[in-house]
Amino acid sequence: DALAEPLVGLGLDPATSLSRQGAVIALALGWSLYEQNGGMHDYLATMFDFDASFEQSLAAMVRGFDPPG
Questions:
Q1: How far apart are the first and last CA of the chain?
Q2: At a CB cut-off of 8 Å and minimum separation 6, what does 23 contact?
Q3: pLDDT at position 67, please?
Q4: DSSP assigned state of 56
Q5: Dihedral sign of CA atoms 36, 23, 57, 55 in order
Q6: Quick one: pLDDT at residue 34?
Q7: Closest CA to 19 of 61, 69, 59
Q8: Using an 8 Å Cβ cutoff, are 41 and 50 in contact?
Q9: For helices 14-36 and 50-63, what crossing angle results, to 10°?
Q10: Is residue 13 helix, strand or coil?
């Protein structure tokens, strides 16, 4: 209940609140694994900026993904 409370206070039901928190945690955990894996980090860093990409991904998750175009 304590985990869901902040988002429940914004009008979400407890199950949705926990699901959305879990999604953000999964994003952060996955990103930290990429950053800690030297070879994977070095490879991915040739394609994009880690900090900017994480911030964009989190923002997209919070607002919902915009349709292409």
A1: 40
A2: 61
A3: 54
A4: H
A5: negative
A6: 83
A7: 61
A8: yes
A9: 170
A10: coil
